[in-house]
Amino acid sequence: MTPLHGLVQWESIRTYMEKGPEFAPGVAPYEGLHTFDKEREDMREEYLYKERSALGVAWWYVSHVFTLWRFPYWVAEWDHGYSMKAMPDSIAAWSQAIPPEEWAKPSAELKEESVKIEAAFAEGINFAKYFESKLVKID
User: Fold this and answer.
1) Taking a C-beta distance cutoff of 8 angstroms, is the pair 14, 59 a contact?
2) Average pLDDT, consecutive stretches of 10 residues, N- to C-terminus, the chain (139 residues)
3) How many domains, in total, are found in the chain?
4) d(CA 102, CA 72)
5) How far apart are CA 40 and CA 119, in angstroms?
6) Domain around 75
7) What b/e sequence results for 4-36 when a residue is b if at least 16 CB atoms lie within 10 Å of its CB, and e otherwise?
8) Which of 78, 42, 74 is nearest to 60 (CA)?
9) Do residues 16 and 24 make contact, with C-beta atoms less than 8 angstroms apart?
10) Per the domain annotation, does 7 fall within a domain?
11) Is residue 4 situated within a structural domain?
12) What is the Rg, in whole angstroms, of the alpha carbon atoms belonging to the chain?
């Protein structure tokens, strides 16, 4: 969508390729109908122990009525069941990791850029600021 989005994607790929799978973002927690029930129980407990006001409870119910109550959670559960099906054996075999000795080695330029960006992050410079001067502006 924008050059910054592309850079963020590239940085996540670079980090994964350079540092390995342990630096990849984890899988988001599974959400479904049980999530709604847990949220409602938590809200009731908060009200019972005076951590949430009656107005807060009313707002919780109103906001969930406007978002179609349990429907979004039902859709999430349906999607989870649909999209988490096992891949065919041919794709699973193709997707197996290659041994470390076959991995491509990072170039000197990539190593140099990695050192620079990690130093910038350590100084508190965020991703957008770091690449701001490197982006080509199109008029």
Assistant:
1) no
2) 80 80 77 92 94 94 93 90 82 84 86 88 85 65
3) 1
4) 44
5) 44
6) 30-85
7) eeebeeeeeebbeeeeeeeeeeeeeeebbeebb
8) 42
9) yes
10) no
11) no
12) 23
